[in-house]
Amino acid sequence: MSNRRHGAIGTIGRTPCHRLRYLPPPHVQLYARLEIAGSAAATRERHALALLQAERASGALQPGQTVVDVSDGRGGTGLAVACAYAGHPLLVVTHAPVCPQWRRLLHHLGARLVRSDPSRGRKGAVAKAWHLANDHDFFLVDQRSRGVGVAAQARTIAREILEDFADGGPDYVLAGPLGADVVPDVVRLLRKERLDAAPLACAATVGDGGGRADTAASWADETLPIGDELALQTACDALMREGIACGPEGGRTLAAALALCGNAPAGSTVLCLLPGDGPKPAVAAQVERRRSCRAERAVAAALGFGRHRGQGVARESALDRPEGTRARRYRSPAPSPVSRIAT
User: Fold this and answer.
1) Which of 171, 302, 309, 335 lies at a CB distance of 3.0 to 4.6 Å from 339, suitable for a disulfide?
2) For residue 31, what pLDDT is reported?
3) Contact (Cβ atoms closer than 8 angstroms) between residue 180 and residue 216
4) Which of 59-63, 205-209, 246-250, 279-283 has the highest mean pLDDT?
5) Closest Cα to residue 223, out of 231, 214, 232?
6) Which 8-state DSSP code applies to residue 251?
7) More confidently predicted of 78 and 116
C-alpha cells in the first residue's frame, strides 16, 4: 500500500501502534497507540474532520464560513488543522491560561485566539463564543457537532485496532483521563465485533481516585489511580528507554498499563491509548537531571570514587542530596599502618 498522502489531511488516521520492549514484564505484550504521531501533533484530527464533513453535508456550515470553538488546547489544535485544510477561518475562545507554544501553533495554522473573562470560567467562554456566532454569522461548534465528531473518532479508532490485532487481542484496553470521552465508544465497538474475546476496559485516574475517576467508573471494568510523581517518572522512562515522547498524562496512562501488566496472566496483550500531550518542560528537565547524574556517576567510577566493593563513599551523586544543595567534600582516607609498612 502506498504511503503517499494528498495534503496534511491525508495523514489523519493509521495511528502507529508500538510494542514496548524494555519497560513491561516479559510475560505480557504491551502496545501503545501514539496519538501524538498525527499532523501537528494533534489528537483530535479525526474528530474535527468528521465534524466539518458532517456539517458541510447537512448545509449548516457554508464554504469559507468562520468556525468558532471553545477549547483548552487539545481539540483546538485538531480543529485548526482541519479548518486550515478545508479553508475555514477559525476562532478559538478560551478562558484558561495559554502556553506560548500552543498560541504560536494556532497562529501558524491561521487560527485566532480570543480570551474570555477568566473569572467566569468555561461558562463565560461559551457565552462569548455564542455572541460571536450570532453577531457575525459564524458557525458555532456545539454539543451536537461534538457528538458527531466523537462517534466518528471512536469508529475509526476501533477499526484500526481491529486491523492491527487481526490475529487476536487485545485482552485489555486502557486509557487515561484525556481519553475518557471517546474510549467508552471504542470499547463498546470492540466488544460488539469480538463477542468471543471481548477486551476488558481499564482507566488510569489521577492520584488516589481524583480527577475523572467518577467518569471512568461508569465505563471501566477496573480503575488504576496513578500519582503525579509516578506519572512524571514513567514519562521519563518512556523517553529514555523506549524512545517514546509523552507528557505527564501519557506517563500516567503508561504507568497504569505497567501496573496492569504486572497482574495480568501470562500471554496477555495490553493496549494503552497514549494521549498526544507531548513532552512537557517538566519531563525534559527530569530527563536532563537523570542524564547528568548518570554522567557524574560514570566519571566518579572512572576516577575510583563511589561505592566499590566496600570502599567508603568518596563523593555523593546529585541523586543522593536535596536539590539546590552543594555536594560535600570528602578527604582521602589516610593510609593504614599495614600499607605504610608495605611501602
Assistant:
1) 335
2) 94
3) yes
4) 59-63
5) 214
6) H
7) 116
Q: Per this entry, what is the length of the chain?
A: 343
Cα 294 to Cα 288: distance, rounded to the nearest angstrom: 10
Whose CA is closest to 207, among 189, 232, 224, 190?
224
Residue 342 vs residues 93, 304, 312: alpha-carbon distances, Å: 81, 21, 22
- Compute the half-sphere exposure of residue 230: CA atoms within 13 Å on the CB side of its CA: 17
- In tens, the pLDDT along 195-242 reads 666 778 787 777 654 444 445 556 778 888 888 888 888 888 888 888
Residue 302: exposure state from Cβ atoms within 10 A (0-12, 13-18, ≥19): exposed
With b for 16 or more beta-carbon neighbours within 10 A and e for fewer, the 154-173 pattern comes to: bebbbebbeebbeeebbbbb
As given in the structure block, the three cell numbers for residue 152 are: 466518528
Give the pLDDT band (50/70/90) at residue 192.
confident
Per domain, the residue ranges of the chain are 13-39+157-283, 66-137
C-alpha–C-alpha distance, residues 211 and 229, integer Å: 15
**Assigned C-alpha cell, 133:** 456566532
> Is 80 within 8 Å of 69 (Cβ atoms)?
no
Residue identified by cell 489531511 is: 9
The amino acid at 237 = D
For domain 66-137, the CATH architecture is: 3-Layer(aba) Sandwich (3.40)
**Amino acid at the residue 166:** A
At 303, which amino acid appears?
Answer: L
Say yes or no to pLDDT of 174 above 80.
yes
Answer whether 13-39+157-283 and 66-137 agree in fold: yes
Beta bridge partners of 172: 200, 270
Residue 32 main-chain phi, psi, to 5 deg: -130, 125
Start-end of H helices in the chain = 45-58, 74-86, 100-108, 121-136, 143-164, 183-193, 213-217, 228-237, 248-263, 281-302, 337-342
Quick one: cell of 331?
578527604
In this structure, the number of other CB atoms found within 10 A of the CB of residue 65 comes to 16
